[in-house]
């Protein structure tokens, strides 16, 4: 829930426990659900016997959550659907499956992230086994320049897969570079080139 409360949620909690509107909230362009996973972490709860013990179980729990959510909110069922994850919330197996299925995938990493460094992230992205692997790996890195003409990082992309190295950011890109992450995710939502 760090993302909801301190990064890209609709407001930030202040030291006096008041809230302040977040001008870089990702829900400005989309309806957003912040979901802790697996069951039993953060605000995610359920019977102890339902706690997930592996990626397959986590995926199944999320699938059933979304089915129930859309049943209660059918007016949202026909909207575009995006899945984002931070840190260990995103894994390379789903990214590879999505790439081969034609689903757009954006993976980004802060260049000052000491937990999951950008070099390691770029390396596993380049090892993804998908039909565009060779062309993605041969694609040149180019600057990610924001609307304010800031050189915010480097992008490597081919077809539906993009990897962005975000400058001057650690592990929590939306916290460290809120304006950059806001522009990045909105370009992704709008299917614009980086």
From TrEMBL:
Pfam families named among the record's database cross-references: Peptidase_S10 (PF00450)
Keyword hit for Plastid: no
Enzyme class: hydrolase
Keywords: Carboxypeptidase, Glycoprotein, Hydrolase, Protease, Signal
Keyword Coiled coil: no
GO molecular function: serine-type carboxypeptidase activity
InterPro entries listed in its UniProt record: AB_hydrolase_fold (IPR029058), Peptidase_S10 (IPR001563), Ser_caboxypep_his_AS (IPR033124), Ser_caboxypep_ser_AS (IPR018202)
PANTHER family, A to Z: SERINE CARBOXYPEPTIDASE CTSA-4.1, SERINE PROTEASE FAMILY S10 SERINE CARBOXYPEPTIDASE
Record-given protein name: Carboxypeptidase
Protein's organism: Phytophthora infestans (strain T30-4)
